[in-house]
Write a structure and sequence with these properties.
283 residues, alpha/beta, Rossmann fold, five-stranded parallel sheet, two-stranded antiparallel sheet, globular, Sulfotransferase domain-containing protein
Length: 283
Amino acid sequence: MSAGADPAKPDFVVLGAMKCATSTVCKYLEEHPEVYMAPRCEPNYFSDDANYAKGPEWYARFFAPRQGEAICGEGSNDYAAGAMYPHSAERMARDLPEARLIFMVRHPLRRIVSAWVQNRVDMGDAVPPTLEAAVREMPARFVDQSLYWKNLSRYRALYPDAQIFIGFMEDLSRDSDAFFGRLCAFLGVEPYSVDAGLHVNPSAGKRVPAGLYTRLNSAGPVRLAKQVLPKGVTRAVKDRLLSRPAAEMRLPPEIEAELAEELRPDAQALLAHCGKPGDFWAL
C-alpha cells in the first residue's frame, strides 16, 4: 500500500514519549503543506480500551477532513506508556502494519520532572504534590515512560526498524532544520521551513501547585470558599500564593541517584542502538 492510499488510516503515528517535544513535532507536521495531521488532539485509539472498542469507523473520523495531502498522521503520547497501556503496540501493528512510527525521547530524568510539572498543573491533586511522592506512588506514569528502550521494544518486536524514527529532543533543540530534514526524509515529504523557535507546550513559565495547596484544598472551609468565590479570584490565589515556578522543581538528590541507577541500563541500550555516545545523557 502506498503512502496515503487509505484515507481512513494514518500513514504515520507520533507515539510519544510525553514531554519529549512531541507537541512541537506534531505542530510542525500539522503546518506542513504535504501532511494532514489530526489537529490538536490525541485520539488515544490504540491505548484506550473504550476508544478502541468504538472501532475503525470512529478512528477514521480523525482523518476525514484530509484534502489531498500526501500523507496523514496522528500523535498520542499514551502509546509510549507501556506499563499503563500494554496493548497499544499489538493493536497498532494489527491495524496499521505499514505505518511509520515516530518515537521522541529526551534525558530520562528531565522528562520525569517535566511530566510531573505538566500533570500537576493539569490534574491538580490527582497527582502527588511532590516529585518524590510522584515517582514512589505513580511509577507507571512517571518512571516507566522514561524507560524508552523497554517501551520502544514493544514496537520493535512488531515493526521493522526501517519504519521507526527515534528523535532526540536535544537534537531538535540544537538544530531544528537538520532534525526536521531527517524527519521529512523518513516520512517521504519535502522539508518545510519553520520558525526556529518553535516550541509547543514548554514547562518553562508554568507554575506548579505546591504542597500547601493540596493541604488547604482538602479543608472544608476552603472547598466552600471555592464554590462561592469567582473563579478568577481562586485561580489568582492558587497561582500567586499557592504555586511555585516550574523552574524551581528538582528531584531530591537521593531520589535522583536511585532513579539514575534504575534508568541507566535502559538508556544505554537506546543510545547504543541509535549510535549515540554513552555519555550523551549524564546519568
